[in-house]
């Protein structure tokens, strides 16, 4: 479904069947000489049909169109190889997330390691199912972007903004004159971005907080999100997101007062806004996302000195200091 959300800027709402996200907002910026598509949807027949129908409805010439992927998650990047084969001139990624997108063997090894840390026994790929799309076979040629790079599309001068947190290399686009920001999954309305674990060496939740504070300083009239509603008051929403994670941290500390926990035990003890009464009933993807978010918060509490991590026979336990 195509909607003009600002002069020359269109939202292509692409359905995500069997997914609690429901849809992804792919944005299309048009000009006489250069077009830009932001994010794509999964590499599934349903997403591809919706993406291409929207482009055809706007008579988009792919030979003068470029594609920017805000981050490596497959609901945003899945159709990048398809659009590249169909004639899109250039695909933009951050260096970090473009590398993660292409390094399938390293990514699989990391995911299997996480399965063990999370206490999940299902194979990641089979557990996530066909609704997440087919996977990249050959590396995707992309042009890396970083903080301060600019893309000029007609009347819009879009500055690249590094906003790591949801992924290590998440980027956004900011137009200073029109006060517009394309946020990907960095800031969402109605739902909260999943902040998951990306390695013991970094405090990814603290990184996310820093990125939120960074964007809160920008004058923004329209914040174009990748899911659900466009946000008109980004500073209020940022405060709500920070409060959400602060409540999560307090919840974890309360749970740990009853004794140490593994990541999966913590995730099973936390409150989630899902229609399942028992942790055992959670689908594999939801267990995965919940465990990743539990671990990112546990590690933040480790980095801030409130919790300690103990390893016993390859199993990680967390307890109050």
UniProtKB/TrEMBL annotation:
Residue ranges crossing the lipid bilayer per the database entry: none
Hydrolase listed as a keyword: yes
Keywords carried by this UniProt record: Hydrolase
Domain Metallo-beta-lactamase, first and last residues per copy: 23-227
UniProt GO molecular function: hydrolase activity
Gene3D superfamilies assigned: Ribonuclease Z/Hydroxyacylglutathione hydrolase-like, Winged helix-like DNA-binding domain superfamily/Winged helix DNA-binding domain
Domain of life: Bacteria
Protein name (Swiss-Prot/TrEMBL): Zn-dependent hydrolase, glyoxylase
């Amino acid at each position: 479904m195509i909607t003009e959300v600002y002069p020359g800027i269109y939202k292509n709402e692409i359905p995500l069947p069997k997914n609690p996200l429901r849809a992804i907002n792919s944005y299309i910026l048009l000009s006489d000489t250069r077009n830009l598509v932001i994010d794509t949807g999964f590499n599934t027949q349903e997403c591809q049909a919706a993406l291409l129908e929207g482009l055809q409805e706007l008579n988009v010439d792919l030979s003068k169109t470029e594609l920017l992927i805000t981050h490596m998650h497959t609901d945003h990047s899945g159709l990048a190889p398809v659009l590249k084969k169909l004639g899109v001139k250039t695909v933009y990624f951050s260096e970090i997330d473009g590398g993660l997108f292409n390094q399938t063997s390293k990514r699989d090894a990391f995911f299997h390691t996480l399965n063990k840390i999370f206490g999940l026994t299902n194979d990641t790929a089979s557990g996530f199912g066909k609704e997440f799309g087919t996977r990249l076979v050959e590396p995707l040629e992309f042009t890396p972007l970083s903080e301060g790079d600019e893309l000029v599309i007609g009347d819009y001068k879009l500055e690249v903004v590094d906003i790591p947190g949801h992924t290590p290399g998440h980027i956004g686009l900011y137009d200073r004159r029109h006060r517009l920001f394309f946020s990907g999954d960095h800031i969402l309305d109605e739902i909260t971005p999943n902040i998951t674990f990306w390695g013991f060496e970094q405090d990814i939740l603290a990184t996310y907080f820093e990125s939120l504070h960074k964007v809160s300083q920008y004058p923004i009239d329209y914040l174009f999100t990748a899911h659900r509603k466009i946000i008109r008051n980004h500073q209020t929403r940022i405060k709500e997101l920070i409060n959400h994670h602060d409540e999560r941290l307090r919840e974890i500390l309360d749970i740990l007062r009853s004794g140490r926990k593994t990541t999966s035990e913590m995730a099973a003890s936390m409150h989630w806004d899902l229609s399942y009464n028992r942790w055992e009933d959670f689908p594999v993807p939801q267990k995965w996302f919940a465990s990743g978010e539990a671990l990112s918060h546990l590690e933040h509490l480790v980095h801030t000195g409130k919790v300690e991590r103990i390893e016993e026979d390859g199993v990680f336990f967390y307890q109050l200091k």
